[in-house]
Design brief:
The complex is a heterodimer of chains A (261) and B (247). With 261 residues, chain A is α/β, with parallel strands linked by helices. In chain A, 43% of the residues lie in helices and 23% in strands. In chain A, the strands form 2 sheets. Chain A has a 6-stranded mixed beta sheet with strand order 6-7-8-3-9-10, sandwiched between helices. Classes of the chains: A alpha/beta (261), B mainly alpha (247).
Chain lengths: 261, 247
């Protein structure tokens, strides 16, 4: 579980996040959604400690992140995996070396044990036979999957995903979403996904937090999204006229299930 | 834009303090150090040899011209070329060139990693990025650059020979006599002190500019340029202070 308390963040006097309180549950995919510039990435960076909040606290279980020294932060980060928007795979290393990097750095495993773990993670993300390829030789979707494999190689307790679907076609995006959700359920980890993809919200949004103008505008689950009358949420999720009509139809179906049959 | 020296110097000291922390795993740092040694040495030998041979040759020709018809014996050409190469041209000119070649490369490599979130990815894994990205480069340079400087000194002296002796300005015997005259081993010590200090400056300054780069490709280009310019200024200032202290 990760809990944030009254998080505020300003850059040169401009407030980006204001009074954010939330709890991210374990074993669930927790989505942070919002328009570009709403403060999602800043919040994610604060959560993983890449940025300090101007005010407020981040709790990992019962550990206050702000009280940790550098060594303790690094120890905690051994329990954290992160998928970056651009995958952030090291260009000079092969897929196998990329995934093996945390194992090489932090474990005393034998080469065979490391290779077995790498292959297991690659199989888990439905990628095989790409061990010796360089990131530049793989597609965007494959790079995301390699990114996920690297993020889970040390069995993290917390998984962060920043815009996992950006630049992917809808079908591949769905596969990545399902993968993230499956891994979350299997390992009962706390997963936080930053996204502005409404398909992700409706597919894997166990818990959803909507940020707007640096503030929490709405919280709920994917089931609550359609019925909610929150104007900011509806404006964000059902942005186009087509989606708005789709929502109306879905609401009518919910109200008159017999009529639809 | 206002340049705040103390702000940047403070960040530099902070980064270097982080870089001196105990490595997470020695074998990974060792591997990276060897990789950097190869990158710095193999990639720089040809340019170092080319520059040194011409500097040695030009020095010899200039002194032949200056000493021609004077009372000073011509074998002094060999003596001057030798000491010039050992004390000044090999360590300083070579390191100025390396600040351009190696320094810009380091700044661009680390800066590119910052922009592509590779450094953030390592941080999230729990890696001390300042230590992993900076220390192997500094150690590799401290071992490899003195070797390159040694090569530069030898090649400079050979360049002086090739430019002056076959052209008939002085004889082979005179040049050799000059090379052996008034030799001070202490000058070689000064050469190595300079090369170690300059190696540290080149790598740490360029790593600093790369490590803290923000923005896009224009900022990365600026960081790379700054790494070279500031590196060169520090080398020249360092050259003056080392000369002041050691001579």
């Amino acid at each position: 579980m990760i809990r944030i308390e009254n998080i505020n963040k300003s850059f040169d006097g401009v407030e980006v996040l204001s009074g954010i309180n939330h709890e991210f549950s374990p074993g669930k995919t927790n989505l942070v959604i919002g328009r570009s510039g709403s403060g999602k990435t800043v919040l994610l960076k604060i959560l993983v400690g890449l940025m300090q909040p101007s005010e407020g606290k981040v709790w990992y279980e019962k550990i206050d992140f702000s009280t940790l020294d550098k060594k303790e932060v690094r120890a905690l980060r051994m329990e954290v995996g992160m998928l970056f928007q651009g995958s952030a795979l090291f260009d000079s290393l092969t897929v196998e070396q990329n995934i093996r990097f945390p194992l090489d750095m932090f474990t005393n495993w034998t080469t065979k044990e490391k290779l077995d773990r790498v292959n297991y993670c690659l199989e888990r993300v439905n990628l095989t036979g790409v061990n010796k390829k360089y990131p530049s030789e793989t597609s965007g979707g494959m790079q995301k999957r390699v990114g996920i494999a690297r993020a889970i190689v040390l069995n993290p307790k917390y998984l962060f995903c920043d815009e996992p679907n950006s630049g992917l076609d809808p079908k591949t995006a769905l596969l990545i979403d399902e993968l993230i959700q499956d891994i979350t359920y299997e390992n009962q980890i706390t997963t936080i996904v930053n996204t502005h993809d409404m398909n992700s919200v409706m597919e894997i949004g166990d818990n959803v937090m909507l940020l707007s103008g640096g503030k929490v505008a709405w919280t709920g689950t994917k089931e609550d999204v359609i019925a909610s009358d929150n104007a900011v949420l509806q404006d964000f999720i059902f942005a186009s006229p087509f989606l708005k009509r789709l929502r109306v139809a879905a609401l009518e179906q919910q109200q008159n299930p017999q009529q639809q049959k | 834009m206002k340049f705040n020296f103390f702000y940047h110097f403070g960040r530099y000291v902070y980064m270097m303090a982080q870089a001196l922390a105990r490595p997470e795993k020695f074998s990974m740092y060792w591997k990276e150090t060897i990789r950097q040694m190869e990158a710095i040495s193999v990639g720089s030998v040809i340019i170092v040899v080319l520059i040194s041979i011409f500097i040695g040759a030009v020095s010899a020709l200039q002194f032949c011209y200056q000493l021609d018809g004077q009372l000073i014996p011509m074998y002094y050409v060999g003596y001057i070329v030798r000491d010039l190469a050992i004390i000044e041209s090999a360590p300083t000119i070579t390191c100025l060139v390396l600040a351009g070649k190696v320094g810009s490369n380091i700044a661009a490599e680390i800066g590119g990693m910052r922009q592509k979130e590779h450094i953030d990815a390592m941080e999230i894994m729990g890696v001390n990025t300042a230590a992993y990205l900076v220390t192997p480069k500094v150690i590799a340079a401290i071992f490899v650059i003195p070797l390159l400087v040694t090569i530069a000194a030898f090649v400079g002296i050979i360049g002086g020979y090739l430019a002056s002796v076959p052209a008939g300005y002085l004889t082979d015997m005179e040049y050799m006599r000059g090379l052996r005259a008034y030799f001070e081993p202490y000058n070689v010590f000064i050469m190595y002190v300079k090369s170690v200090v300059f190696a540290f400056m080149i790598t740490s300054i360029s790593a600093f500019f790369g490590y803290y780069v923000t923005g896009g490709s224009i900022e990365l280009g600026k960081a790379s340029t700054n790494a070279v310019v500031i590196g060169n200024i520090f080398i020249l200032a360092g050259d003056y202070f080392i000369a002041l202290i050691l001579t």
